[in-house]
């Protein structure tokens, strides 16, 4: 847009709820996710009358929040979710936290009781029906949370919310609006165009860049670790350009599975608690590590941070100073916007003389061949091997714009083994790690990439958490291919109980049950199918994709006792992964 604000008729009087809708539309919002309730009826009515923004009605506010999270990640425009006061607002909280921890730009609008029904400083618990102080509750998991005190401040609050949600490290903002504020009239001259703030760039630290390139020139085993911060910074193309200029192999965290296409020779694999075994061995062997947009949290490094660092030199790039030298100590800190770092580094690298890493890549490929992901479970389970299944699913799902994974063992099998193309995305719940994320998040993705199809990968436990959103899929006829890996238990916690509680499977296998998802899907009106044996997989996947424009569900029965392997052993370095087996090529030893 050419100007900072969009002009409208001078001194026009607008209802506040109409202004909210017009602001959202003029700032790129194409759909709003919500569940109706009394305290947002004015905004809903304004959305309907405006007619330019798609209203996506979910069946639980948590689902609306997850959908907004995914929409924001996919588009860079804040995903918007709305809920009424009280239980509606509190039901958003898990999704708000998901946005905060995974750096997703989002705006959450909650309705509130009329201002004269707000208890304020009265020494009572509640005054108005469903009155709840959602602002105080949400503050720790938002970039900001405000309650509108007057109708006149709504334009500025909306502008600030959008600017804050998309500036720096993205995240959620909550705006709580009393009902009498929503229905009031305000006099305005223009509707704000909310642009992200571009902070003044810190001066280029020549010394740090020189130190980085000096270490790379002397390195025998350099490596890059990429995290979800690169996607949050909308820097994917810059990252790929940098990687191919610097010609250094790349490992990645769970939140960066889609950072390079599967067939890129520099793409090594996922590290971490359930990472590819060869990738964890690779990071242990490296002598110089460039960390870009990753928090180096415990699921990446394991608990033994000293062992993770070893003798390697680490250069850690992040826009937030607090994330560097937080757990892994002794890193060279480069505090910078990731776009700025990649732009500068890509320019400076033209003058460097960095050698091809031929021998290092050969060594890594030997590790990869010695520890194939498809062999980790090969002798310990019956029926369908989930890692092999993910490879086969990938090969037929080339039309998919994205894979959205729920949380659990299936999440790890997907991250270990999916073969993503250069234009495909992978979304999951990382920091919050919430079961129930997959289906509603995929709804958000589907609206962001329409009319392209989306693949959902879920487990039976997580799928039941928001199973009601199948109706949202049906009502909107979303082109969604839903795969439910059903092992009839809460598999990840059951695996933990197997290792540390002598197989006492309370509330995971004992006291838990899963329905027939084929029957449930059919009841919702979605074509469905169930498979149990390896020889059924390819035909079932052909069936799943027989009509790419329509939803379909495939239930895949998995051995109840299939574990997510490999897994860093509790309290051990990231090189010591269960099951403890010897590589046929004896490549386990770390030099």
Description:
This protein is an alpha/beta fold and 591 residues long. It folds into 3 domains: 5-192, Rossmann fold (3-Layer(aba) Sandwich); 206-370, 3-Layer(aba) Sandwich (Rossmann fold); 376-565, Rossmann fold (3-Layer(aba) Sandwich), CATH 3.40.50. The chain is 36% helix and 19% strand. The protein contains 24 helices and 22 strands. It has a 6-stranded parallel β-sheet, sandwiched between helices. β21 and β22 form a beta hairpin. It starts with a strand and ends in a 13-residue tail after the last strand. Mean pLDDT is 93; it is low at 1-6 and 584-591.
Key attributes of the depicted protein:
591 residues, alpha/beta, Rossmann fold, 3 domains, six-stranded parallel β-sheet, 36% helix, disordered N terminus
Question: How is this fold's topology laid out?
Answer:
Elements: E1 5-15, H1 16-26, E2 31-34, H2 41-50, E3 54-57, H3 61-75, E4 79-83, H4 87-91, H5 93-101, E5 106-112, H6 134-138, E6 144-147, H7 154-166, E7 172-178, H8 179-182, E8 185-192, H9 206-218, E9 222-226, H10 229-232, H11 236-246, E10 250-252, E11 267-270, H12 277-285, E12 288-292, H13 298-301, H14 305-309, E13 313-318, E14 332-335, H15 338-348, H16 358-370, H17 386-396, E15 402-405, H18 409-417, E16 425-427, H19 438-449, E17 454-459, H20 460-465, H21 470-476, E18 480-486, H22 491-500, H23 517-524, E19 528-531, H24 537-544, E20 552-557, E21 567-568, E22 577-578
Parallel strand pairs: 2-3, 2-4, 4-5, 5-7, 6-7, 9-10, 9-12, 10-11, 12-13, 13-14, 15-16, 15-17, 17-18, 18-20, 19-20
Antiparallel strand pairs: 1-8, 21-22
Helix pairs in contact: 1-2, 3-5, 3-19, 11-15, 12-16, 17-18, 17-24
